[in-house]
Amino acid sequence: MLEFTGAGLGAIAAAMAAKEKQMAVLGGRLLLDAPTAQAAETATSARLRYASETASLRTIARAVSAAFTRVTRWHCWWMGAGEMDPAVRVDLNDDFFSLRASAEEVKTLMLLLQSDSVSFETFFEQLQRGGWTREGVTAEQELSAIARQQPMLVPTILDEDDDE
């Protein structure tokens, strides 16, 4: 800011003080929000607490997805694909608050699976949501991998005729 009297410096000083106060509030919030052993918080309450903070970012991600979808459809049309195909979509990930499932939740899921209260597909989907599986692996692929690692059953009693 360029002026003869220098009266504009007060506005700059006030803006700097406001930013310092905002940084102090954010820093204090980081310290208060740090996970502690005394205060347990459910995933639902944490998700609700941070929902307002990610709402604007989620809106932006969805708008960008819509714009990319439109541009991709135009590109396909220009390349000679005929009409604009509604099946062509671009979806950005708008899940900005992913929370891993706790060991206790996985244990509960395992007990439900072992008691035949849920299917393996439901169990596996919950493990995926909780971040306990390999990316890109479906429930069917996981079941076939489990079947491959099972030891082959070997007969333990040999016929006496085979020894001779």
Name the structural class.
Answer: mainly alpha
Residues in β-strands, percent: under 5%
How many strand elements? 0
* Biggest sheet features: none
The geometry reads as flat
Mean pLDDT: 78
Count of helical stretches: 6
Describe the structure using short key phrases.
164 residues; mainly alpha; flat
How does this structure look, described?
Among the domains are: 42-98; 100-149, no CATH class. With 164 residues, the protein is mainly alpha-helical. It is built from 6 helices and no strands. The mean pLDDT is 78. The protein starts with 8 loop residues before the first helix and ends with a helix. It has helices spanning 9-32, 43-78, 103-114, 120-130, 139-149, 160-163.
